[in-house]
Specification:
It is a single chain. The chain has 525 residues and is an alpha+beta fold. It contains 14 helices and 18 strands. Strand 2 and strand 3 form a beta hairpin. Helix 13 runs antiparallel to helix 14. The protein is globular, with a radius of gyration of 34 Å.
């Protein structure tokens, strides 16, 4: 069975990352076969697309590079999964209840109805991305699974994920150059990462997932197996870089390089060689800004009602900023919780260039997309296969023709180098068109048909105008014209209309005959 292919694009504040994964139809094993990265300077701010044109160019460049990858060719991308997140993403509580006349079995349809009512009852100007159930109640008693139970009252507490309408609107404004890429799906980035890096025990006991990115830091709190709270802060590792730029008068590239080489989140002094003055200044900036970001994360968790004892599974940190030297130590010291680094699923086979510690975001999107029902994001372009076939005239179809192609050559023949007089008259079979060429021809035929219809409508309007003008002229010349003259004019107009309709009918008939022949060729192919 043909494997399923997944194409995901993660649009972040520092880079845009695209990848293609192959999903085995039987075992469900995921193997990443291609990966491409484009750096986005200021096109994306705080996880939200700010310059649609620049992001469109970057995404189209990634799509072209992925399609030209040896592991993907000759397939073409027809569908993509895009990450959705960024600044303003947060959660709000929602609740819905249903009262039944009698004790009734609660089915999946009733749960869907509760979800719709909870969504309808939310009063917010932001976009509602999803509603996740937190607790189920049947007759005011909490249950773990509502479907299949009996009761006269059912209610669910939901966690609604919302964000500013601009976040998704700008993603939908991205212009894709490929006419074959017509469908885009959206995956909520924090949910995709949590599904991969958190295990069931951590979700049940209570944990905090901290995604420390370039310009945003997302906090997600899980407890009792469900998402309880999430918020995105407009702070990230790029704030540290900007502090170095302003304090030490450096360019952004140089400041980023010094942050990676010498930055330390706890501002420790090594036991060996003493630090230079520049290194001391760098560590002071890094330590101060990192501590501020961590303090904001802890404050958000406490404001949501979660303290250290409420999250015994600790903190799981992901993102590029979390790889800063001693960041996990600083996070553990300030929060007084145990901290571990989140990594990609080890069962996913990665291609060259992907790091399971660094590229958690794009790998999580691929895994989340593979778990969703749907078609393959790639389709096989037959035109590319046909280009690989030899283009040497017509090939023999039977043994007799094959014998003629393999007939012996008489080297003593004086006309050996002369052209065969029958060659120029030899009938060659028409070259087979691929799927893409047939689609373009069909589109051109549709445009031609629309043009014919428009010409016919224009001719009819001109005819009506001429007819009206003639009537006005006739009334001006002979206002006392009798009815016989008007009848003669009607006969002339009828004849002219019949002639125009006949011409248009011939055009449409000819077009339909050509379209029918093209459809028959498609079916035969």
């Amino acid at each position: 069975m043909e494997p399923r292919y997944i194409v995901a694009i993660e649009i972040g504040s520092s880079k845009i990352h695209g990848a293609v994964a192959q999903v085995d139809s039987d075992s469900g094993a995921i193997q990443v076969i291609a990966s491409e990265v484009q750096h986005a300077a200021n096109s994306v701010r705080h996880g939200r697309v700010s310059n649609v044109q620049e992001v469109s160019d970057l995404v189209n460049g990634i799509v072209r590079k992925l399609e030209n990858n040896q592991a993907v060719m000759p397939r073409k991308i027809s569908e993509i999964y895009i990450s959705l997140g960024g600044r303003s993403l947060t959660t709000v509580p929602a609740k819905a209840s249903i009262d039944f006349a009698n004790e009734t079995e609660i089915t999946a349809d009733a749960i869907k109805r509760l979800k719709k009512e909870a969504e309808f009852g939310l009063t917010t100007t932001k976009s509602i991305l999803d509603l996740l159930p937190r607790r189920y109640y049947v007759d005011n008693k909490e249950v773990t699974n509502m479907a299949g139970t009996f009761g006269s009252r059912a209610s669910i507490d939901f966690t609604a994920i919302i964000c500013a309408q601009e976040n998704r609107a700008n993603l939908e404004r991205i212009k894709l150059d490929s006419p074959l890429l017509r469908r885009r799906n959206y995956l909520i980035r924090p949910l995709a990462i949590a599904d991969m890096v958190l295990d069931s025990n951590e979700r049940q006991l209570g944990c905090a997932l901290v995604d420390f990115g370039a310009e945003t830091t997302t906090l997600s709190i899980y407890k009792e197996g469900a998402l309880q709270f999430a918020v995105t802060l407009p702070l990230g590792s790029r704030n540290v870089t900007r502090d170095l730029m302003g304090g030490l008068k450096l360019t952004e590239d140089r400041a980023e390089q010094l942050k990676i080489e010498h930055g330390n989140a706890i501002n420790e002094r090594p036991c060996g060689a003493p630090l230079s003055a520049d290194q001391v200044d760098i560590n002071q900036f890094v330590h101060a800004r990192t501590g501020e970001i961590i303090a904001n994360v802890i404050h958000q968790a406490e404001a949501a009602g979660y303290k250290v004892g409420d999250l015994p599974a600790g903190i799981i940190a992901v993102g590029g900023g979390a790889r800063m030297r001693n960041f996990l130590t600083a996070l553990s010291t300030q929060s007084k919780m145990r901290v571990r680094h989140g990594v990609a699923d080890p069962q996913i086979h990665l291609c060259h260039g992907l790091d399971p510690d660094v590229d958690v975001d794009i790998i999580a999107l691929l895994k989340a997309a593979a778990a969703m029902p749907g078609n393959s994001c790639l389709f096989l372009d037959r035109t590319m296969e046909e280009k690989t076939e030899p283009e040497s005239g017509h090939r023999p179809d039977d043994e007799a023709a094959a014998d003629n192609y393999r007939r012996p050559v008489n080297e003593s023949d004086s006309d050996l180098l002369d052209d065969d007089p029958d060659d120029e008259f030899e009938a060659r079979p028409p070259k087979k068109q691929g799927w893409f060429s047939r689609m373009l021809n069909r589109r051109k035929a549709d445009e031609r048909r629309e043009q014919l219809l428009e010409d016919a409508r224009r001719d009819e309007e001109e005819r009506r105008e001429r007819q009206r003008q003639r009537r006005e002229d006739q009334e001006t010349i002979d206002p006392m014209a009798d009815e016989d003259d008007s009848d003669d004019m009607a006969e002339i107009d009828y004849a002219e209309t019949k002639s125009l309709i006949g011409k248009f009918k011939n055009k449409v008939t000819s077009y339909l005959e050509r379209g029918t022949e093209a459809d028959l060729d498609d079916r035969n192919n």
